[in-house]
Structure formats: structure tokens, C-alpha cells
Amino acid sequence: MSRQHPIELFMPPNMLRAKAGGGFGGVDLGALKRAESAMETLKTEFSGMAGDAVAALAAAHRAYSETASPDGRAALLRAAHDIKGLAGTLEYPLMGRVAGSLSRLLSEAPEGTMLPAKLAEAHVVAVQIIHRQSITGAADKGALALLGELENQVSAILKAA
């Protein structure tokens, strides 16, 4: 015959919650409204931020095309990667995909491999066009067709390398 012992549950105190001021209790609607207002204010600056990123990409591409050095390639990769990361926030998803394709080409091609100049240039021009024409949606048929071709070309180059 087995003896039954009562089960005791011990819940250790949550010291982090106590130090942080308890639970979440509720949403501070005032803070939420202030955050939404700040985002609306920032949206007016998004085009300028995107323009700066596009200009940096174009400058990095010009420098790399003049002297195809490892430093120039790294600068171009950094500029493409910056656009890839910012594109969602700046509401340019297709620009992000084009920059992602260029990033893939630059990062996955073996060091010392001469990259096709026209393919890198096509990526940069595509980013510039998307920004200039303010293509903020992800469903522009022309941009999607161009993006598909750029991605196919990058895949073919990397497969051959």
C-alpha cells in the first residue's frame, strides 16, 4: 500500500517583474499615440533617407567599377546590404529585394572573381529607378519582371563560379 503525500507547489517570486514595476497591466494609449505620431513624422523623412542610401550605393558602385579592388567590393556590399536592411522600414520592398540580389552576388562569388560589371550596374540602376518612380508596393509587374531576371542572372553566375 502506498502512502499519498499532498502535493505542494512552490512558485518562486519573480524578482525581475518586481524590479520592473509589476506586470504590463495595460497598454498606455497615450504612449501608443505618441509613437504613431512620431512614425508619421518620420515617414516624411523616409524618401530622403532612401535617397541618401541610393546615392551611397551609386557612389560605391562608381568607385568599384573604376578600380575593382577588394575594398571597393566590400564598400559596394555594405551599401547594398544597408538598402536591403532599410527597405522594409522605408517602404520600398522591391528595392530591398534588388539590393538583396546584389548583396548575394557580392558575398557569394569567390574572392578575386571578377564580377560582371553590367550585372552589378543593372542592380544599381534598378534600385535608382524604383526610388525615382517611388515604387513602394511589392506588386509592380515591370519591377517584378526585372527583379526575376536579375535574380536568375545572379543564380547562373554563382552556379558557374
Task: Return Rg in Å.
Answer: 25 Å
Strand content: under 5%
Instruction: Give the number of domains.
Output: 1
| Number of H- or I-type helical stretches | 6
Largest β sheet strand count, sense and barrel closure: none
- Chain-averaged pLDDT: 83
Q: Give me the count of strands.
A: 0
What's the N-to-C terminus distance?
74 Å
* Secondary structure: helix percent: over 70%
Shape from CA axes? extended
The secondary structure category is mainly alpha
Written as H for each helix and E for each strand, in order along the chain, the element string is: HHHHHH
Topology:
Layout: H1 15-20, H2 29-66, H3 70-86, H4 93-108, H5 117-132, H6 141-160
Helix pairs in contact: 2-3, 2-5, 3-4, 4-5, 4-6, 5-6
List key phrases describing it:
mainly alpha; Four Helix Bundle (Hemerythrin (Met), subunit A); 6 helices
Describe the protein in words:
The chain has 161 residues and is mostly helical. The protein has helices at 15-20, 29-66, 70-86, 93-108, 117-132, 141-160. It has one domain: Four Helix Bundle (Hemerythrin (Met), subunit A). α2 (29-66) packs antiparallel against α5, α4 packs antiparallel against α5 and α4 runs parallel beside α6.
